[in-house]
């Protein structure tokens, strides 16, 4: 009887302790559920909204309100608001990331795609930028008088022969940036080659965009993409300014998880910079920066990187080698336009690069047409032939077994090289080209197809 009484009391005590423990755990869980740090980091579960759809609507409302305030606020405030909108939008849409990873093709970090963030519209920028591109006069004044002059008048009349599915968008719109990242990821590209000017500088038809880089990096990281830089030919670009530019980029953006670094054959991980119109600067100036003995040498410093020069003419290959560049790319999507962009020259260029320890990066494109901004340039138009032109370029590139293939372009609409989604459109004055009979995403699908083909063939090259 005594033993039975002791056992009964032991069971009661155990049940009470278990009940108290369960209540303690439940209270902790309820407390954690109510916690939502304002600055939860990427991937932190507490950064997710409890009601994502409601949060998404709230973000969009704030986005519209902020866009109205931009025209009155100063530049610093506008950039701060933009980044805040982008971060909030990302938080609201983070919950389907795992599903997104399952649905999209895996990124191919050997496929690099040129990307432009120079577009603007009244909602986000107070005016149209680049969509209202001027008609450029012919270099010969005698011929120039035979062609129309003036500017395009968006949103119906834009400086492009195709019309984007997203309309005359702003590159600052977070929803546009995210849509672009999703498209590039669906195409199985891996590295975004971002057109870049130093802070406070821009092309003659645009405005500075360096402040947008952090937002691009954040969204690229969400889609497991990497970002490298396409350094444009800004005024007074030389060895000294380039040293400062590279230092600025690496110091400011180099620690971001989306910042691209390329693993070399020796195992080093180095940033990569494409240098547009590199041939404008003489080899001796580049050698100051890019050779070990140069007066401004960046070699064997914390800012050492892979520098890829633009090859246009055949003689440029010797200049590129003498300058100390690490490789060359061809950029133009016009087969036959230049020596570098002519597919039949890629084998000899690859052989030259192989024998001189240089990277050869051929550039493929879906076609070319720029008569919306250069009405006199019909002879350089390359018809897309319903995707066949693009596939021919990929086929030519794979024949030379390159380490990297670059794609011109995701969204250079002025020159008609975009693979971004385009839609049929007709206005009173203009009938835009389109991708029919295919869907708006046909060039994304073709890129994905060739990315997979490249992967399979690369496995054979390495065997």
TrEMBL record:
Catalytic activity: N-{alpha-Glc-(1->3)-alpha-Man-(1->2)-alpha-Man-(1->2)-alpha-Man-(1->3)-[alpha-Man-(1->2)-alpha-Man-(1->3)-[alpha-Man-(1->2)-alpha-Man-(1->6)]-alpha-Man-(1->6)]-beta-Man-(1->4)-beta-GlcNAc-(1->4)-beta-GlcNAc}-L-asparaginyl-[protein] + H2O = alpha-D-glucosyl-(1->3)-D-mannopyranose + N(4)-{alpha-D-Man-(1->2)-alpha-D-Man-(1->3)-[alpha-D-Man-(1->2)-alpha-D-Man-(1->3)-[alpha-D-Man-(1->2)-alpha-D-Man-(1->6)]-alpha-D-Man-(1->6)]-beta-D-Man-(1->4)-beta-D-GlaNAc-(1->4)-beta-D-GlcNAc}-L-asparaginyl-[protein] (N-glucan mannose isomer 8A1,2,3B1,2)
Keywords, sorted A to Z: Golgi apparatus, Hydrolase, Membrane, Signal-anchor, Transmembrane, Transmembrane helix
GO MF annotation, one: glycoprotein endo-alpha-1,2-mannosidase activity
Keyword Transmembrane helix in annotation: yes
Membrane topology annotation: Single-pass type II membrane protein
One Gene Ontology term, aspect cellular component: Golgi membrane
Top EC group: hydrolase
Localization of this protein: Golgi apparatus membrane
EC numbers for this chain: 3.2.1.130
Annotated family: Belongs to the glycosyl hydrolase 99 family.
Protein known as: Glycoprotein endo-alpha-1,2-mannosidase
Species of the source: Picathartes gymnocephalus (White-necked rockfowl)
Gene that produces this protein: Manea
